[in-house]
Amino acid sequence: MPQCLICQTDYEPFISFGKMPIANGFLTEKEFEKEYFFELKTGFCPKCKMVQLVEQPDREMMFHENYAFFSSTSARQVIHFKEFADLIAENYLNSDDPFVVELGSNDGIMLQHFKGAGLRHLGVEPSANVAAVAIEKGIATISEFFDEELAKKIIAEHGQADAVLAANVMCHIPYLHSVAAGIKLLLKPDGVLMFEDPYLGDIVEKTSYDQIYDEHAFYFSVASVSYLFEEHGLEVVDVMPQNVHGGSMRYVIAHKGAKDISAAAIAQRKKEEELGLHLPETFERLRRNIETSRDKLVEILAGLKKEGKRVVGYAATSKSTTVTNYCGIGPELVEFISDTTPIKQGKYSPGAHIPVKVYEEFCGNYPEYALLFGWNHAAEIMAKEQKFMESGGKWIIYVPEVKIC
Ligand code: SAH
Ligand code: TMP
Ligand code: ZN
Q1: Residue 71 Cβ contacting ligand 1 at under 6 Å
Q2: pLDDT-wise least confident of 57-61, 135-139, 260-264, 354-358
Q3: Residue ranges of domains in the chain, CATH in brackets
Q4: Does residue 339 line the site of ligand 2, with CB under 6 A?
């Protein structure tokens, strides 16, 4: 039986998605032969309540100089991180010469605002190509993996931080104890860690199983996050639900006893109990819902194929890798996937090998149906795709439920 990465308790996986490639491993035809696969399995730890991957590829296989995810490709995310930066600048940077550290700073989507305000900042971003975009913008960035050792080096060079920020990266790091120990050292006595990640409550409520892929080692709840940080003399003092990435939670963490615990943090813990996020049967139910979702989606796509309709995928998201491989959706069901990221274009989707094409291929010859792999960007996408809908085009959606609209 696997052991929990947080509390070492043995647990039973509740689902296997089968053989999976690297979610962001877009590849050329020549590379098909040596494509890497592992078994994507997820489990729930009954003791610390952490939902986690049983097996994860080595970090260098996912985060490297050809990393395919550039944060600033989404206009909505650009706004989101401006608001996040403003919130921090207004509430948490009260010292004379504040210092902000961001983990997984990617192309500088958030740090650019601290740089712009002339504040001391440092990005930690191991994927060299996305880090280079930030450096180009003049944002101080080191291309390394954050852990306790690196925290010590940062302190030696820059001193402690007023705020440590992390978005969609904490859940990527299997060696979270080292990260938490590093943050304990790095934070000033009244400093805060603020991080956000896709929220387990949303995954359970929306059956958004495509949040489960290689990079996401953990699926957090306030309960499991609290358990982890309390082991390091830190605690969750506030939580703020976020309407991005299909439902995320932002956690504010401080040294134990340094700040009051907000009413929202207490209420969210209670809500999690009502949702059953502490119970193994919740995840058995999630597994059944995932299987039903898969069967319905495959039925729709097979039906459309029979009718001779054209179906194109919209947005080659990392999440789509789980859906295509788990459901067995290949180029025979989805003609190609349209995506605006240059590094993905002209390549094939991981595992399923659906061609990824430039956006112009989509709007130059609208298909009858678009399978919305970027469902988490639905509002942004639908607003700009009025013409597709006017042409009679329909969307196939699978979160929170499978439907054509
Ligand atoms: N914060 C951005 C990027 C999220 S993608 C956003 O929300 O859009 C996750 C990023 O974390 C990747 O760029 C990856 O290279 C980086 N990363 C992975 N492991 C890390 C680690 N141990 N320390 C710091 N960054 C890490
Ligand atoms: P994400 O869901 O992991 O943030 O990935 C977003 C992907 O979707 C990225 O490859 C860019 C792509 N995309 C489009 O192709 N068109 C769009 O309008 C949006 C918002 C995203
Ligand atoms: Zn555990």
Answers
A1: yes
A2: 57-61
A3: 71-276 (3.40.50.150), 282-404 (3.40.50.720)
A4: yes
